[in-house]
Amino acid sequence: MPPSLPFIRLVHRNLRKYRFKIGLSITIAILVLSLISQYIAPYPREGLGYVPVGEENRRLLHPSPQHLFGTDTLGRDLFSRVIMASRSAIIQAFSVVFLSLIIGLIVGVLAAYFKGLVELVLNYLTELFMAIPSIVIALFFRLTLEAGFHVVIISLVTTWWAWYARITYVYAKGVVELDYVVLAKLSGLSSAKIIMRHVVGVIIQPILVQAISDLGSALLEASGINFMGLGLPPGYPDWGVILYEGISEMGIMAFTRTPWLVFYPGLFILLTTLGFTLLADPLREDLDPRLRRRWKLWF
Amino acid sequence: MDSILELQRVTAGYKSIKGFKSLIKRVEIVLRDISFTVEKGERVAIIGESGSGKTTILRVILGLLKPISGKVLIYGKDLYSLPSDQKLQILRRIGYVPQDPYRSLNPVLKIKYIVGEPLEAVGVEWRHIEERASEVLKIVGLPQSIINDTAEELSGGMRQRVLIARAIIAEPEILVLDEPTSALDVSIQAQIINLLNSIYNTFKVTMITVTHDLGVAQYLADRLIILKSGKIVEEGSVDEVLRNPKSEYTKSLITSYLQITGINSLNNIKIRG
Amino acid sequence: MVLAVRAGGISIGYIDEEEEYIVWAVRGVDLAIEEGDAFCLVGESGSGKTTFASAIAGILPPHAVTRGKLYIFDRLAIDESTWNFNGLRGRVVSYIPQNPGTSLSPFLTVEDHFYYVLRDTLRYDREKSRKAAMEALLKVGLDRGVLEDYPHELSGGMQQRVLIAIALASNAKIIVADEPTSAIDANLRASVLQLLGRLNREYRVTLLLVTHDLASTSIVCNRLAVMLAGKIVETGRTISVLRNPQHPYTKMLLDCVPLLGVKKPLKPLPGEPIQVVEDKAICPFRERCPRAIDKCVEEPPLKPVGDEENHYVKCWRLTGVESG
Is residue A29 within 8 Å of A36, Cβ to Cβ? Predict the structure, then answer.
């Protein structure tokens, strides 16, 4: 049975809202940038982390037409590095949220639908994982594995799926007792079909919206792990790594003497996060009418 | 006459299982020693206020709640001792219309999938399901145009009609109605009552209605079973029960009903006026 | 005679979500309720009866828009688009909500409920509010024992009585009750309605009862108005309307009420209750009316019926236009 796609309709309905348009433009811009950055970057090799020849003369140059964002402590062109880092941002944010969503959705729905022991075990498991901070897991994986994307993604997914399991469980719990689920059970529809159609099909919208707004938080947390040097290897084009390199070399002086080292990667993290948030907020309001016209209360 | 449904000394209740408390099982008894028989082609109403256990009776009949003791016989077979596939076979002969039309329709599903679900579950091809779905929509008086819409935009009365269409699509022999009109406006309530009776007449089903409203019950049933705190206090034909109620509870139900809408009040107007 | 409520051409609407258009729920209603009256607003869902009642109680939501004038005891409460319910809401007019279960806070005892209401409206202290509460509870037929109870310890009927007692204790002159019986069991309905009727007669409280059940109006109300799609289609003394309904809609409503012990066929007209969005001046019942004529595309005036006192009806058929 082809399900009608209410999520598409939800997006379509919101297309004329300003915030949504801005959020969508920022998100699309970052996505496009992540695809084409290696072709438009003026110094693609430096962007990838290779130290250029004659780096002594190019260290910490101020922003100029030659180096739009200036250069970093190893003389690499910061503009190339920052725009090429958009790819790692997109990869990390999307894979963390996507994997967590899939795992969380399965666990949450199963816990709500099959009551009793399954519910008990899955819920305690969820709570257990919610209690573990992702930094600790990142540290553990960093000590046992090579540096790379897998450290960031595994350590974040390990803790994040539990949140999706929890919200899915809460939404699903409210649906599984409703009469249409009872009716479907009575007519003998298979459990898999009931779960897909009457549970997942009904609750998926708010969870997808939650996932979209979480993309920003995922990016922030991934940048945090990279900033602490626990995730991607040094030199890799990633906003967290760039910040880490800048600050570890310059110390607190980075903010005053070489502000471009922290400003540009920070700006891109901010913009991308803002884009995801602006994208998700109108959708959330649409799903929950109580949030509408909240601003009027302030006047 | 053959009995189609029989409850034999059914006692039922709910276990409370939560977290570690599952070690201590507490059972709250809702129904005590309920026995009644429904003959084929009968219209029976189970009357009770909230907390009387009428919803629990429904759950027991629909195979959703295993009684603590006693038997539920449908077509002479003990529902809760059958293997699950045979139990399903029996349950498919029951059409069920749930209580609240606003919470009983999947909000993201098209009407044709909602209505056609009982046939889909037994593996009928979609071509036939769609044909059949438009047939039953016609029977319940809904326009064909809504078949590809979702239920979100429908009014309460239309939702109730969709639920009735879904209940009758697989040609059940028993129709179980849970408060079929309590959420509806007066004129829509009357439409639904007339619709249910015309379905009863055309399809020769057995109709079991659960309601708290005596006025509705009198239109949808020939026999009344009156329930109070999990026990049957009175049973008999509508005329019998209304004309000379035996239990005090039934009497109080009837007087309070008459005080509100009954002939008494209209007569009073004539006297006063 | 003092007029408790006077509405002059009042319209109430809600701004649509996208703020594109206004949905008018009440459309140009003229109404006068005398002090001491027990007045019933009858209508099906979408008729605007709840909106009108909440305007009188002063609890319109902030996204509502209004036109026309509403006076409560000669005080201008709604003047075109500005509202001023200060000193009226909770003091002169008190509201009894539909669902007692969700209207009482589960964390407060009955006494606390009285105290917080009376402290804010009448500046009572604990002692005084307790005394007033006991008096009011006596009036509604509850004993003082319930003061210490939490709402969940009371039955639906008792919760509703507590709400009525709170309304009484605040010395309200008008009580607006929005479907007070729809959420409680059938056998308790009569007693709640009778209680409201008794309060009206004994304490001269003006009562505005909103209901969808035309037949139940007779035990409480002396006057009623039937609303359809935001307009009053028939109004008059309860006795004369129920005994001699003129508007085809009123007749249909009476035909649809099941009467216990009387096996009359229910005769609903096909179709759904109409919720008119666009502000067109047509007879709102035209689509469903079995006696519709060509003239019905225009809105009929509210005309008196025969020689009955105060009985008005809005139908072309009864104003001498019989062609078609």
Answer: no
| A47/C271: higher pLDDT | A47
Examine residue B268 and state whether it is found in any structural domain, yes or no: no
CB burial of A238-247 (b: ≥16 within 10 Å; e: otherwise) equals bbbbbbbbbb
The dihedral sign for the CA sequence C34, C35, C37, C43 = positive
pLDDT per residue as tens digits for the range C271-303: 776 665 555 677 777 777 777 777 777 777 777
Q: Is B186 on the interface with C (CB under 8 A)?
A: yes
Region at A222 (left for phi over 0; alpha for psi -120 to 50; beta for the rest): alpha
Q: Which domain holds residue B91?
A: 3-262
Which of B62, B67, B63, B137 shows the shortest CA–CA distance to B99?
B62
Is the CB of residue A289 less than 8 Å away from at least one CB of chain C? yes
B96 vs A: CB within 8 A? yes
- Please indicate, yes or no, if residue B273 is contained in any of the structural domains: no
C62 near A CB under 8 A: yes
Chain B hits for A179, Cβ within 8 Å: 98-100, 103-104
Residue of B245 and A99 predicted with greater confidence: A99
pTM metric for this prediction: 0.83
| Contact indicator for A172, A113 with CB cutoff of 8 Å | yes
Cross-chain Cβ contact B122/A188 below 8 Å = yes
* pLDDT above 70 coverage of chain A, percent: 94
Q: Does C17 sit within 8 Å of A296, measured CB to CB?
A: no
Q: How far apart are CA A32 and CA A37, in angstroms?
A: 8
- The CATH number that applies at residue B119 is 3.40.50.300
Q: Which residues of A touch B150 (CB under 8 A)?
A: 4, 6
Largest Cα–Cα separation, chain C: 69
Is the pLDDT score of A29 beyond 90?
Answer: yes
Q: Would you call A294 an interface residue with chain C, using a CB distance cutoff of 8 Å?
A: no
Of A13-27, A217-231, B149-163, C253-267, the range with the lowest mean pLDDT is C253-267
- Looking at the domain assignment, is residue B121 inside a domain? yes
- Residue A299 pLDDT > 70, yes or no? no
B24 confidence band (pLDDT: 50, 70, 90): low
The superfamily CATH assigns to domain A6-43+68-290 is MetI-like (1.10.3720.10)
C254 touches chain B (CB under 8 A): no
Q: How far apart are CA C168 and CA A15, in angstroms?
A: 51
- What is the ipTM for the molecules in this complex? 0.83
Mean pLDDT of B181-207: 89
B21 falls in which pLDDT band (50, 70, 90)?
Answer: low
User: What are the residues whose beta carbons fall under 8 Å from the beta carbon of B44, sequence distance 6 or more?
Assistant: B38, B207, B208, B209, B221, B222, B223, B224, B225
Question: Which among A179, A273, A175 has a CA at the least distance from the CA of A224?
Answer: A273
Domain count for chain B, please give it: 1
Nearest to B140 by CA among B204, B101, B206, B191: B191
Alpha-carbon distance A210 to nearest alpha carbon in chain C (angstroms): 22
Domain boundaries, chain A: 6-43+68-290
C16 touching A, CB under 8 A? Answer: no
How near does any CA of chain A get to the CA of B98, in Å? 7
Contact B57, B35 (CB under 8 A): no
- Establish if C263 touches chain B: CB-CB under 8 angstroms: yes
In terms of DSSP H, where are the helices of chain A? 6-14, 18-40, 44-47, 78-113, 117-130, 134-144, 149-176, 179-186, 191-194, 201-227, 239-250, 260-287
Q: What is the pLDDT of residues C45-88, one digit of tens each?
A: 778 888 888 888 888 888 888 888 888 888 888 888 888 888 77
Does some domain include residue B269?
no
Please answer yes or no on whether A183 and B98 come within 8 Å at the CB atom.
Answer: yes
CB nearest to B109's CB, from A120, A186, A197:
A197
- Mean pLDDT, residues C225-235 taken together: 87
Q: Which two tokens stand for residue C272?
A: 């759904």
State whether B108 and A6 contact (CB < 8 Å): yes
